[in-house]
Design brief:
Layout lengths: L16 E3 L10 E6 L4 E9 L35 E4 L3 E5 L4 E5 L4 E5 L1 H8 L6 H8 L4 H14 L3 E4 L20 E6 L7 H10 L4 E6 L5 H9 L8 E7 L6 H10 L3 E7 L5 E4 L5 E5 L22 H9 L7 E4 L5 E2 L16 H5 L2 H4 L43 E2 L4 E2 L5
Parallel strand pairs: 9-10, 9-15, 10-11, 11-12, 12-14
Antiparallel strand pairs: 1-7, 2-3, 4-8, 5-6, 6-7, 13-14, 15-16, 17-18
Length: 420
């Protein structure tokens, strides 16, 4: 098995841990991670999960506040050669062509690991450390293996135990009662949406997350009127995308997010400069960006800053499309689609009920397109924390081709754009 220790990629320890960037929008829900005999997570707590709806601008990458010195091998770690190493159940390795990732779904962190370590954590997971060392024989491999386990234990990705059978893996089956979990409504200067009727129908479908995208000038009064109509319904998270106007002062925007707790974020596009507003301290809900959002084509960007690392997203990615699953959209003209950028439509919201469109097999088919089914993506180490876009494909004739908005090449482990 010496090929698992390719000097180029396999023998190096992971280089960094980063925390997933804040979502451009959110979906409601709570993940309960239990410290029990069933799942060996670190502690008992509830974690809110966030589901991306659409992204047209990547958030600046943030280094994790929990970042540790991953190259520090002097951390005192006790290794029992006769024990079996177990990852915490919410820490899951994902294999790629050239390297793998280790996703901490509880803390929202991920890091690179070599494929050699992925092999140890999956294929040899039931062996003791001593048996793993014997598997690879003596020589230069022993210090590397020792370094792997010191890294994992020192950074709280797992532990050594004598009864590994007591710590099974988490079941990542994805089951949700809602027919629709998230929706997008686009608005331009000619839009005349029947807001009350749309919001009522979305509520009947169980929708909890809504993104409102405004492509033309929007007054604070118009935005306030629309948000006020959301009060009686089931929406828990509302993401607003509006164009920059001098009249949209910081104080005006902060008053809106304070008045409507369901508003998770306001993204102000076409602004003179990129900046954030904090209120209260250290809580950012208003973002300005110089990027323009003038049509439904501004979505689907696959970027490292948009990775989503949590139990909900990871579970959904196993058998569903993390962008389109249980999503519905209404474009600026009132046309019902899976995504505003899709060419396929299902009638106008004034004449077709949303439940009627959602019930069609053709509407639900894109929900089932997994990253494991998509060419190139199926061999990517980011496939379960990444999003997906079926509206813009590298090969328009192949629904399973790579997203055209993704610049990452798993075979070279490199992004074509330097800032990713």
């Amino acid at each position: 098995m010496r090929d698992h220790f390719d000097k180029t990629f396999a023998s190096s320890l992971p280089l960094h841990v980063i925390q997933s960037a804040p979502m451009s929008t959110a979906s409601p829900g709570v993940i309960r991670l239990l410290e029990s005999r069933t799942h060996n997570t670190r502690n008992w707590q509830c974690k809110v999960f966030y589901k991306p709806i659409s992204r047209f601008v990547p958030h600046p990458r943030r280094e994790s506040a929990l970042r540790r010195d991953l190259q520090n091998e002097s951390v005192p770690v006790s290794l029992s050669a006769n024990g079996v190493f177990r990852l915490f159940a919410n820490c899951v390795p994902v294999k790629g062509i050239r390297r793998s990732t280790l996703c901490d779904l509880q803390n929202g962190l991920w890091c690179f690991i070599p494929n050699a370590l992925h092999f140890i954590l999956t294929e040899l997971k039931d062996l003791t450390i001593k048996e793993i060392q014997a598997h690879f024989g003596s020589g230069d491999h022993l210090p590397i293996i020792d370094g792997y386990f010191r890294f994992l234990i020192g950074n709280e990705f797992g532990f050594i135990c004598d009864e590994p059978e007591r710590f099974p893996c988490i079941d990542f089956s994805f089951v949700r009662p809602e027919q629709i979990t998230n929706a997008i409504i686009d608005v331009d200067k000619n839009s005349d949406h029947p807001w009350d009727d749309i919001l009522s129908q979305l509520s009947d479908l169980g929708c909890r997350a809504l993104q409102l995208r405004f492509f033309s000038e929007t007054s604070a009064e118009q935005l306030d009127r629309i948000l006020h109509m959301t009060h009686p319904y089931t929406l828990c998270h509302i993401d607003v995308v509006v164009p920059y106007l001098p009249g949209f002062s910081d104080q005006t925007l902060l008053q809106i997010v304070d008045r409507y707790p369901a508003v998770s974020k306001i993204n102000v596009h076409s602004a003179p400069a990129t900046r954030d507003i904090e209120s209260p301290p250290n809580v950012k809900r208003v973002f300005f960006t110089h990027e323009r959002c003038e049509s439904s084509s501004h979505c689907g960007l696959v970027h490292a800053a948009n990775f989503v690392v949590n139990m909900e997203h990871f579970s959904e990615a196993q058998d569903h499309n993390t962008c389109l699953n249980r999503k519905i959209s209404i474009d600026a003209h009132g046309t019902i689609r899976n995504c505003p950028a899709f060419s396929i439509s299902y009638g106008n919201v004034r004449s077709v009920r949303l439940a009627e469109a959602v019930g069609l097999k053709t509407f639900q088919d894109p929900w089932k397109i997994r990253k494991d089914d998509i060419k190139i993506c199926r061999s990517c180490e980011f496939r379960y924390i990444c999003t997906d876009c079926r509206a813009f494909l590298s090969d328009s004739s192949d629904v399973l081709s790579k997203p055209a908005t993704c610049s990452y090449d798993p075979s070279s482990a490199a992004w074509s754009d330097d800032d990713a």
